[in-house]
């Protein structure tokens, strides 16, 4: 039986592996900032430990006694009023975890990076073979790129027993309100998307990603694995939602020049209001990249498989419908 620490267990990425670890018999603790608020959404059997990745002392205390660490936390947003927050959480927080893991002598450290850190040609698929060397296009991407380099250097020079996962855009049942891709799926199902931005994204179901994390933990130190099911243009994503929610519609797609103007206006307004724009430059940059990750290595070496998309989207929409109903009843 392992003693595992998961960072980010209240998020879409971290919640399923925590449950899957409990189900296989491991002892699991979760680093949380507010146990009173988050305790009710933790998987049954997970022990809440108070702390924050930006606080080195609390991280060190949380890692104490653990032999395995899953670092799934991070700021996935493409827009923040204070862009320095990306670095504080995604880079400094990762550094605190690396230092604590090395001090404790953990046997396994699984770091959730992103597909964005690789060279990504627009005219074909890419794999884990070539990391991007030039700074990436957004503050979020650059922070994840720097965190990835930090972990990689710790493997090479400090003996960190890390494996690194690289998910596509993640969706699936989560313990809190729908955000990011989940929010888009829910809004499409409810007819709340007036027009689609141009572009698309590669996607992965969070339950599949969780299995990938657990499989990656058994791989050789220094291994990297992309986890992605398929690339979907946004109209195809909307069609997928309509296939499982017949009342949904497929909105028209905004022309690219108009989308950039809309994003520019939203960014200017956000500077004044402090509220995130409906469509940020970062989101539009991501959607317009139209890159296709190839998860063949994970399929071949780990035996990883992906859930059929309609099944995954159905489970996601049913979950958030139930979550909304429960919130109204409480």
**Portion in strands:** 15-25%
In total, how many beta strands?
14
Q: What is the CATH homologous superfamily assignment of the domain at 3-176 and 203-230 and 291-308? A: NAD(P)-binding Rossmann-like Domain
- SSE order: EHEHEHEHEEHEEHEEHEEHEHHEHH
Query: What's the CATH architecture name of the domain at 3-176 and 203-230 and 291-308?
Result: 3-Layer(aba) Sandwich
CATH topology assignment of the domain at 3-176 and 203-230 and 291-308: Rossmann fold
Structure description:
This protein has 330 residues and is of the alpha/beta class. It has a domain at 3-176 and 203-230 and 291-308: NAD(P)-binding Rossmann-like Domain (Rossmann fold, 3-Layer(aba) Sandwich), CATH 3.40.50.720. Helices cover 45% and strands 17% of the residues. It is built from twelve helices and 14 strands. It has helices at residues 15-23, 35-38, 56-63, 84-104, 139-158, 180-189, 206-216, 234-244, 256-273, 281-289, 296-302, 309-329; strands at 3-7, 27-32, 47-50, 68-71, 108-112, 125-126, 162-167, 169-171, 195-196, 200-205, 224-227, 230-233, 252-253, 292-293. Strands 3-2-1-4-5-7-11 form a seven-stranded parallel β-sheet, sandwiched between helices. Strand 2, helix 2 (35-38) and strand 3 form a beta-alpha-beta unit. Helix 6 (180-189) packs across helix 12. The longest helix has 21 residues, at 84-104. It is globular. The two termini are 37 Å apart. The model has no long low-confidence stretch (mean pLDDT 93).
Can I get a quick summary?
The chain is of the alpha/beta class and 330 residues long. It is 45% helix and 17% strand.
């Amino acid at each position: 039986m392992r003693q595992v620490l998961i960072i980010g267990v209240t998020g879409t990425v971290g919640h399923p592996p925590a449950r899957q670890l409990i189900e296989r018999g491991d002892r699991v603790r979760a680093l949380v900032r507010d146990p009173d608020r988050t305790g009710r959404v933790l998987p049954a059997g997970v022990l809440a430990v108070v702390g924050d990745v930006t606080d080195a002392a609390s991280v060190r205390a949380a890692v104490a006694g653990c032999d395995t660490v899953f670092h799934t936390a991070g700021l996935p947003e493409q827009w923040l009023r204070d862009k320095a927050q990306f670095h504080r959480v995604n880079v400094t927080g990762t550094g605190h975890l690396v230092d604590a893991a090395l001090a404790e002598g953990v046997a396994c450290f699984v770091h959730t990076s992103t597909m964005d850190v690789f060279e990504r040609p627009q005219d074909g698929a890419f794999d884990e073979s070539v990391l991007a060397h030039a700074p990436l296009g957004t503050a979020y991407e650059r922070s994840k790129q720097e965190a990835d380099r930090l972990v990689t250097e710790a493997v090479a020079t400090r003996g960190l027993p890390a494996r690194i996962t690289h998910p596509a855009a993640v969706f699936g049942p989560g313990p809190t309100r729908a955000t990011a891709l989940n929010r888009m799926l829910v809004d499409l199902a409810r007819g709340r998307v007036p027009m689609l931005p141009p572009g698309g994204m590669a996607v992965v179901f969070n339950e599949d990603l969780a299995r990938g994390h657990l499989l990656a933990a058994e791989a050789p130190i220094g291994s990297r694995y992309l986890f992605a099911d398929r690339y979907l243009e946004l109209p195809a994503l909307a069609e997928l939602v309509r296939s499982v929610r017949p009342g949904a519609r497929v909105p028209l797609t905004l022309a690219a020049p108009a989308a950039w103007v809309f994003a520019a206006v939203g960014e200017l307004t956000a500077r004044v209001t402090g509220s995130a724009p409906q469509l940020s430059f970062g989101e539009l940059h991501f959607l317009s990249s139209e890159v296709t990750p190839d998860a063949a290595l994970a399929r071949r070496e780990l035996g990883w498989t992906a859930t059929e998309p309609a099944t995954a989207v159905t489970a996601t929409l049913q979950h958030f419908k139930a979550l909304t109903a429960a919130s109204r009843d409480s």
